[in-house]
Amino acid sequence: MKLVLLGASGQLGREWQTFIEENGVDDIELLSYTSSQLDITHYREVSDELRKQKPDVVVNCAAYTDVDGAEKNRKQAHKINVEAVLYLAELSKQFEFKLVHYSTDYVFPGSKFDMKECPNGYPEKHPVDPINWYGKTKWEGEQAIRNTTENHLIIRVSWLCGQFGNNFVKTMLKLAKERNSLQVVNDQWGSPTFTEDVVQKSLALLERDAKGTYHLSSQGVINWYDFAQTIFTLSEIDIAVEAVDSSAFPMEAERPSFSKLNTQKLETEFGFEPVEWKEGLASLLKQLGAK
User: Fold this and answer.
1) Would the pLDDT of 186 be above 80?
2) What digits encode the pLDDT tens for the residues 148-160?
3) Are 66 and 125 in contact (CB under 8 A)?
4) Nearest by Cα to 108 from 257, 265, 253
5) How far is residue 123's CA from residue 194's CA, in Å, rounded to a whole number?
6) In whole angstroms, what is the distance from residue 116 CA to residue 175 CA?
7) Residues 24-28: what's their mean pLDDT?
């Protein structure tokens, strides 16, 4: 399988490369491109390269992911998350490759009512209603793919974290070295998704020629305060953590109160068991050398 990876310098893109290198995935020829090497908004260059390489699969890890920045830079976020994704979908149809694309829990409204109605998380078919521009562009990008090519795999993830790039786990560990106490919000509920698990299950889905939309996350529902406390406990870090509500940290973009993704579809169709979030966190901390 010839696989082109776009957005190779991000936390998920780097995880893809590391996983394949360290696990000896011999049947995959991986061609990785950072955004500086192949910008998905440079359509002619993307078209020329994909025509030249003739991949079986294109994995798009490139995205505008700055949730607050998207509110100020709406055109740029739309260009990367919607327009460029539409072009990749058109190339998928033209060059006959499967397009793997990652989306987000932020396509859902995340209301407290939904938390009561969907205690195990949002299923794939739940109506979307994003409350910020980032979520809106990611939803439009999904729709651009669905409306253009059937040969696609859209995987929604939430609270993404791994050994590379910036994420909540690494931020907490960094702040713990700089401060004696922290405030963390306790009114936003969800579950982390670990990048290693994402790559492993993405590859398994490709092996099974899966198509459509799937939710991939961890088992359990927690809030950010719970997550932070467990990071410090497992890392044996002694720091005072105060639980506060979201009003303590005003943001440009509104955050959902609830964004848990239900993974039952993956479990039912393929027998994929979700990682228990504490086990996933312990594994990540081991990778980061925090314990």
Assistant:
1) yes
2) 999 999 999 999 9
3) no
4) 257
5) 19
6) 33
7) 84
CA distance 196 to 73: 30
pLDDT for 227 equals 98
Q: Is the distance from CB of 50 to CB of 33 less than 8 angstroms?
A: no
Crossing angle of helices 224-234 and 168-178, rounded to 10°: 60
- The torsion defined by the Cα of 62, 5, 200 and 142, in degrees rounded to 10, comes to 40
Of 87, 134, 214, 225, the catalytic one is 134
Residue whose token pair is 């901390």: 285
Distance, CA of 172 to CA of 229 (rounded, Å): 10
Q: Is 33 known to be catalytic? A: no
148, 113 Cβ separation under 8 angstroms: no
Burial of 236 from C-beta contacts in 10 A (0-12 / 13-18 / 19+): exposed
Query: How far is the C-alpha of 71 from the C-alpha of 64, rounded, in Å?
Result: 11
* Per-chain mean pLDDT for the chain: 96
Q: Could you tell me the pTM of the whole model?
A: 0.96
Question: Rounded to whole angstroms, how far apart are CA atoms 276 and 189?
Answer: 16
